[in-house]
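Students often ask why we bother encoding 3D structure as a string. The short answer is that it lets us treat folding as translation between two languages. Here is a chain of 333 residues written in the first language.
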Amino acid sequence: MRIGIVGATGAVGQEIITLLSERNFNLESIRLFASPKSVGKKIKYLKENLIVEKIKQNSFKDLDILFFSAGSSISKKYAKIAQKNGCYVIDNSSAFRLNKNVPLVVPEINSETLKTNTRLISNPNCTTIISLMAIKPLMDLCEIKRVVATSFQSVSGAGNTGIDELIKDTKAAIHKKKFKNKVFDRNISFNVIPKIGDFESNLFTQEEMKLQNESRKILSNKRINLTATTVRVPVIRSHSISLNIEFTRKVNLKNIINALKEFKGIKVQDDLDPNLYPTPHDSSNIDDCIAGRIRIDYSQKNTISLWVVGDQIRKGAALNAVQIAEALRDKIR
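And here it is in the second language, the structure alphabet:
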């Protein structure tokens, strides 16, 4: 396969490069594209130093699969051009996710929606992916009526600039100096910010509505209701989500735990005795999401609560995109 990566110098683009190497993707060639300020940079892939190129309208003629991870505006400008040149496009932005003709894919959940004649595939939002890795096996066990989610999202969800701002803000706070925030709405050091994305007319944010809208599409279930509060926290990597899940009938805790353990791509860390439960540190730089704090909700009938963590750069973005590419590769062969 001949692979291209648009946004190769960003956090997700860099992770895609790492994963292609780790997973032995069997490449014939790989080309990297980024903004003009990054053109000419060298990025190592295996034993080769790759030169970052400027993205142009004629950049895609000799590529099979193209990863887009440079924001919605770039995807909207170049994705269709790449398609016309015969590329399969895997887009990590929100540009096409709710387009009814564009598959929105989490391979462990709905890989059957990938077709060889579909040239554009969307990668879901990171919080949606991590949440659904815990929700899907339980949905298969018993019909779900409603999900209430509260996310605790790391600064790397805002890219490398988000990480830089947390580090600089924290240093300034420690030394009792003022720091002017640019990436986040408030200072993020020693703080939490209960707003990610712009507000919609219903007073929920865009990030919060993604969980409802994207999950319904991925699960092919318009009846399920998912409501969220998304919170930015001073954690460098990996998102955490508290899930309260209401079923249509009574559920058994043992069956819930077994369903999670048996689902590919998620692990369970849940034991009171050694105080075992997952944190963002546990999931950082690993492929699997991790569930814990699994319990029956005493306040609501047919309801459980659980906690799930996942690396939003990896499974929440880059790994999911590479898994889509692997599934495409296997179908094309």
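Translate back mentally: Residues 314-332 form the longest helix (19 residues). Keep this in mind for the problem set.
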